[in-house]
Amino acid sequence: MFRKRLQRHRLLDFLGELPRCVVAMEARGGAHHIGRYCLQNVLEPRLMSPLYVRPYVKVHKNDDRDAEAIAEAATRPTMSIVAIKSEEQLDLQALHRARERLVTDRTRLINQGCGFLMERGIRVGAGRHVFQKELTRLAVEGTDDLSRRILLLLADMASELNLINDRVAAIDAEIKALAKTDTDMQRLMEIPGVGPTIATALVAAVGTGRSFGKGRDLAAWLGLVPRQITTGGKAKLIGISKHGNRSLRKLFIHGARTLLHLVRDRTLPITTWADGLMERAHVNVAAVAVANKMARVAWAVLTKG
Of 297, 304, 271, 303, which Cα lies nearest the Cα of 190? Predict the structure, then answer.
């Protein structure tokens, strides 16, 4: 219809003057904010994954051809449209991203401390709590194998580790409090292996789950299904695809390991099925299979109440 270059701060004013139409864009940073603005102005936003838009780009990439590709992809009847997240979903997602960053910083700090000690002949057992206990003991009692400079550095690392633990605990407490106030999250937490962290992360990512036609679509979006290489009518299944939300997939697999090893009631249908699966398959394969089933059950809980 027309071509027009716009500066970022003028985009919303331009959209506000448009008649009712489809506004298509890639689901990148800021897209959900623009999508909510379109809904308020009686426009129809269509957010698409950049992975699905890329095949429609002609020859070399530039701004004009990107726009043409987005317009072309938005008209395809089989195109998957990303559901627009609410402000509450984005806030909850930001909370999980902040927690993940803190956990990554804590793991980096522990690995560095273990390396410092190993270079001086001191080996610490596996596990965060074991390392933190040993670090505190060395910082207080000291040892002849460590110089004063290293002891001061370890004391500083111990205080930093305590600070990170307090911040993670505060976010966990906030996540648990939020999970108690939402009926969908409360229903999700009835699934064995699903706690407040998984329930809040899933609702933040998919909302009511109605953008997926069936439970397997959610499991495939999380990358928990086998990747196919099919040619000449012969299908070959290899490892899981690992597509989609990496952090959410990791949480589901950790929850599946909890169900496999820590749930005491082994008479539940899902635990009975998991026990039979572990007799036939490797424990890691069983964990991914249980995570797949948990994702399907979670979709049913969200969509059907």
Answer: 297
